[in-house]
Design goal:
alpha/beta, 15 helices, Rossmann fold, five-stranded parallel sheet
Length: 462
């Protein structure tokens, strides 16, 4: 037996995928089964992909994991086709259990997302090492003993086993040469130019349950002024907040082990990498110091962070930039989750920050850029793609005009705003998924579903 993991990937991208590639590393190192990752774009031909899979597996039993699918219905359909042909298919990644069992209440409300239990043989929710016992029990021997496993029982009911806790001993090694693309002659290696390093699992903001008050959509005229109160974990749109919560930070040596695994670039230093940590600034100077003491040549560290974390960590960022200047390292503020420059929309998104804090963060990074011009990057010209969600269900002329005025007065189109905004995506298992379902029940309407996504932008049925 050997295994492949299929994952969604943008066309032309040359970056690695930590989750699937680390999972493939764990499977290959701790079982007898080779495992690779196949990055699939929306443009890839399904027949070519299936032929490449057939050539890869040959006479061996095919076992295919699917991870980080980005809600792509074409990959859901592919999985169902492969399952019906006898392939062992495993849905993994964030919200795998929720997507496998389907949207809350779908049996009573047939328009809701019915789940993927008919498309995949199994779902595996939680740490990747849970695949180790599963691969030795694919024929149904002691499935209840496999942590994190979801599957159909004899009566058709879905059984979900509790997942295990994260174990650092599996998180120090990543093979970055195990990712492939589908070409004319089959699968070919994808040469990556940037990677990721995991330092923190989950988000502290997602660890707090808050009582959010979310406005009715602007499209429901009778709902003007109405709000729905519901408990929300983290940002209301986040599709992984309830899944991961905040298990915590990894040990420094584990993080350094991951950095050692990164390939070297043409200059002999490690390729640029994104540091996965929602609040990276408190520990950033220590990470740079540890890398320097261990003789690691770094080129660029990209940070994904929140505006409030940037403000609170300003002093540590300055300390890190001074160290970066000595080491010749570039710090790229690659993605700051501004999301909106309207307080009402920020409240509905349950961001926990205000427009004032967003603008304070912008002023801070512009000041630091002037002080560290060669070692700090933050603008769209330098490769940053900051969070900006638009459109949303709450847009109105008043909100749009106010946000536009703020953005242009502060010069945000020059360096902060991405070329294209990201429309609000509502995953059925997010906080906003519960918001939509409550509106449906109260107003007697039905929003269309597109796979695991709720189509809030379409006119609901009465």
């Amino acid at each position: 037996m050997q295994m492949a993991i299929i994952t969604s990937h943008p066309p032309g991208a040359a970056y690695g995928l930590l989750g699937p590639q680390m999972a493939a590393t764990i499977i290959q190192d701790h079982t007898r089964h080779p495992c690779i990752v196949i990055a699939v774009t929306r443009d890839d031909d399904k027949d070519s992909l299936k032929k490449a899979l057939s050539d890869y597996f040959g006479s061996r039993r095919p076992v295919i994991g699917f991870s980080a699918l980005s809600g792509r219905e074409d990959l859901f359909s592919l999985a169902k086709e492969l399952t019906n042909e006898g392939t062992v298919t495993i849905l993994a990644g964030p919200q795998a259990d929720a997507d496998f069992r389907g949207e809350e209440g779908w049996r009573q409300h047939p328009h809701r997302f019915k789940g993927l239990a008919d498309s995949f043989r199994f779902a595996l929710h939680g740490p990747a090492e849970q695949a180790i016992p599963l691969l030795s029990r694919l024929e149904g021997s002691r499935w209840p003993d496999v942590p994190g496993l979801s599957y159909k029982g004899l009566n058709g009911a879905i059984i979900q086993n509790p997942k295990k806790s994260w174990d650092e001993k599996y998180l120090g090694k990543v093979r970055w040469d195990n990712i492939y693309r589908v070409g004319a002659s089959g699968i070919t290696p994808l040469r990556i130019t940037s990677g990721q390093v995991l330092q923190q699992i989950g988000c502290p903001h997602a660890a707090r349950v808050t009582e959010a008050e979310i406005d009715y959509p602007a499209s429901i005229r009778a709902g003007g002024g109405k709000r729905i109160k519901l408990p929300v974990r983290g940002c209301s749109f986040c599709d992984v907040a309830a899944d991961k919560g905040f298990p915590g930070k990894l040990d420094m040596e584990t993080v350094l082990c991951q950095i050692r695994c990164l390939p070297e670039g043409r200059d002999g230093g490690k390729i640029p990498f994104e540091l996965i940590n929602e609040y990276p600034l408190p520990g950033l100077p220590d990470l740079l110091g540890a890398a320097s003491r261990n003789g690691m040549r770094l080129s660029q560290i990209s940070l994904t962070l929140r505006a409030d974390g940037l403000i609170a960590g300003a002093a540590r960022l300055e300390e890190a930039l001074r160290a970066a200047r000595q080491m010749g390292v570039n710090i790229l503020l690659g993605a700051i989750g501004f999301e909106s420059f309207d307080d009402r929309i920020l409240r509905n998104l349950n961001k926990g920050v205000s427009v004032q804090e967003n603008l304070e963060a912008v002023r801070l990074i512009r000041r630091l850029k002037a002080e560290f011009p060669r070692h700090l990057g933050y603008s769209t010209r330098e490769g940053a793609v900051h969070g900006f969600i638009h459109p949303t269900p709450w847009d109105s002329r008043e909100i749009f005009a106010g946000a536009q005025k703020t953005m242009y007065l502060c010069g945000l189109p020059n360096d902060i705003l991405p070329r294209h905004s990201i429309p609000l995506i509502i995953h059925h298992a997010s906080g906003l998924g519960a918001w939509i379902r409550q509106i449906e029940q109260t107003e007697g309407i039905r929003y269309k579903r597109s796979g695991s996504i709720i189509c809030w932008w379409e006119e609901p049925a009465g």
